[in-house]
Amino acid sequence: MSGKTLYDKLWDAHLVKERADGSCLIYIDRHMLHEVTSPQAFEGLRLAGRKPWRIDANLATVDHNVPTTGRENGVEGIEDPISRTQVQTLDANCNEFGIVEYGMSDQRQGIVHVIGPEQGATLPGMTVVCGDSHTSTHGAFGALAHGIGTSEVEHVLATQCLVQQKSKNMLVQVDGELKPGITGKDVMLAIIGKIGTAGGTGYAIEYAGSAIRSLSMEARMTMCNMSIEAGARAGMVAVDDKTIDYVKDRPMAPKGEMWERAVESWRELKSDDDADFDKVVHLDAADIEPQVSWGTSPEMVTNVGDRVPDPANESDPIKREGMERALKYMGLEPNTPMTGIKLDRIFIGSCTNARIEDLREAASILKGQTIASSLKQAMVVPGSGMVKAQAEREGLDRIFLDAGFEWREPGCSMCLGMNPDQLGEGEHCASTSNRNFEGRQGFGGRTHLVSPAMAAAAAIHGHFVDISDYYDRAG
Amino acid sequence: MKAFTKHTGLVAPLDRSNVDTDMIIPKQFLKSIKRTGFGPNLFDELRYLDEGQPGKDNSQRPLNPDFILNQARYQGASVLLARANFGCGSSREHAPWALEDFGFRAIIAPSFADIFYNNCFKNGLLPLVLKEEEVDELFRAVESVEGYALTVDLENQTVSTPDGKVYHFEVDEFRRHCLLNGLDDIGVTLEDADAISAYEARRKQEAPWLFPAG
Ligand code: SF4
Question: For residue A469, what pLDDT is reported?
Fold first, then answer.
């Protein structure tokens, strides 16, 4: 018999029961909540007269709706009354059920997928779910983490379990050395470009190989975060020293003797050498160039040195039509050099790229520079209050402000523009977020997904530039 | 939950792949704390020519005449025919809520995104997968015959065309059972409360750091 994959191990450790019809009950260790996908779940509990199964497994915060300016007025400062109601509803629900919530004025508030790892609420070996598709982020810790719908949020609240079908196993193996300036974001966009946005549908992806081992925890989170953009609900990376170092001393991490016991068990969280995967994808790290998306799906991505593709060269008629539609929406002509696209706004933020390392990376490019006068706006939205405070201690806020960036309060912000931070119609934005769907960042807005370093360099020039040249020049 | 057994309805063809949940229901409508009322804003950016907002009177908004659901022949459609990777992107259950509220009961596509697929079953909406060639066939049929309707039978796992052709689809047993009977799956899970408690007791020994509150 072949060995087990990391996913198999996590699955087996959380299997409560396999029922006669083949469906499985899986135990959930950590449930994160935010204001958008939870109100109807709490309402459902009330209507059915049910109580949460295990209060201390839940952790809530507000992120999607919160404004990134004028936070001194707290919840009352949210101008949109519908957004305000949604934020207040989460506060009220958490109060009623006794769930810990990092509210708007708590320094620990931030994007749910940033604060989980930051607080040690996400631990190796856990099952982590949230009513949010980017919950896959937490898989970077050797955890089984995925997004769920609101009915499932209610199900987890009421039973601490989910009814699941086991996914298939996919291994994405990236070996070799990444070129200077190439980040986890570029690796992940390259993977999505290769396997497509449905390439991972039905699979749990494990990212492995020497290039993945060399990445920091932040970069691994960026990659796992975008597993859903490759169609996979869950992405994960095996535990190593980096994982354990990151978790150590986090507020909610185990301490003392319990820590030692936990670490010993976490060391097992890797695929066996003889484990079988249903699908294996190989990438050579040395081939990966800085990535920029040109279309309206994350798979519509290319190297910064390339040109906007020509639909005329696509033989599949459905794909060709999709490309034509995307180019029309994006206002781009085929064969335009990617570096020739004029940008209007720069957004550095989101659960993909708003951690401290991301801000350091962007700041290192922006130090002593100013943004192009052709830009309408460039903004940095830290992923959490803790990231913001850390960045300020390091003086990164000064670098951004001096360069002409706005320095905002934490939240999802322009990643989806549920708050006032939105693109105008027809505007091109270099964004460190994860989705370039039509209208995602604002009605008629045009998103180009990039790494923080690429976004920073693009801000200086008003268009994309090859960050590798930058690193060569910088030495 | 609403049960689904058998349904016959007019088919509307949405001929594009990778339809994401942002497209199905844009973010500004997710501010609602209710489960209902999303139908008028289903496919908002495709359906209307202006930008929709919660509370805006949709009857006064300019419609996009090219969009399928605005065309006279597809009024009253309750079966959506779609392309690959339907429902990709965000986990928002507002997407199936909007489709259901609009009047759709079944969606046929060659593939669905996992989370969306799962969410549909919780809302009496049946997503069903047919082969790429079969979906192609149906697209051709719908476009050429006005008033084209299909019968979807969950009990027998079939889709039948007006000219008597029958396609078979797969669906897992638990989901099928819940949907056929309109079961509340939380209630079903709670029948296993003892198994959940036993698991917790065992896990507290194995991995006590996962239960800091004891
Ligand atoms: S930052 Fe963007 S992708 Fe991440 S949770 Fe917020 S809205 Fe979703």
Answer: 83
Query: Structure tokens of A86?
Result: 């949604």
Q: Which fold has domain B6-183?
A: Aconitase; domain 4 (3.20.19)
Measured CA to CA, the distance from residue A311 to residue B119 in angstroms comes to: 34
Using CA coordinates, name the residue in chain B closest to A17: B195
Residues 6+ away with beta carbon under 8 Å from B88: A197, A198, A231, B18, B19, B20, B21, B113, B116
* pLDDT < 50: residue spans in chain B: none
Please tell me the distance in Å from A89's CA to the nearest CA on chain B: 8
Calpha distance B90→B113 (Å, rounded): 10
Report percent pLDDT > 90 for chain A: 95
Best substitution site from A34, A37, A64, A437 to test ligand 1's pocket, by max atoms within 8 Å of Cβ?
A64
How buried is residue B66: exposed, middle or buried, by Cβ count under 10 Å (0-12/13-18/19+)?
Answer: exposed
Q: What single DSSP character describes residue A26?
A: E
Tokens standing for A234?
């869950």
**The two structure tokens encoding residue A470:** 């930058």
pLDDT digits (tens, 9 = 90+) for A53-104: 999 999 999 999 999 998 988 999 899 999 999 999 999 999 999 999 999 9
**In angstroms, what is the C-alpha Rg of chain B?**
20
pLDDT at A433: 98
**Spatial contact of A25 and A162, defined as CB atoms under 8 Å apart:** yes
pLDDT digits (tens, 9 = 90+) for A183-200: 999 999 999 999 999 999
In this prediction, residues A367-381 reach a mean pLDDT of: 98
Q: How many CB atoms lie within 10 A of CB B161?
A: 18
Measured CA to CA in angstroms, residue A186 lies from A195, A428, B160 at distances of 14, 20, 46
Residue B205, C-beta contacts closer than 8 angstroms, at least 6 positions apart:
none
Q: What is the pLDDT of residue B139?
A: 98
Under an 8 A CB cutoff, do A258 and B209 touch?
Answer: yes
Residue (of A294, A325, A296, A318) closest to A197 by Cα position: A296
Digit-coded pLDDT (tens) for A309-324: 999 999 999 899 999 9
Q: What is the mean pLDDT of chain A?
A: 97
Q: Which of B125, B121, B152 is nearest to B138 (CA)?
A: B152
* Under 8 Å between Cβ of A221 and A248: no
Residues A209, A238: contact at Cβ < 8 Å?
no
Distance CA A457, CA A461 (A): 7
Q: Cβ separation of A17 and B192 shorter than 8 Å? A: yes
CA A469 and chain centroid, separation: 27
Q: Which domains does chain A have, with CATH numbers?
A: 1-289 (3.30.499.10), 291-474 (3.30.499.10)
**Check: complex ipTM more than 0.90:** yes
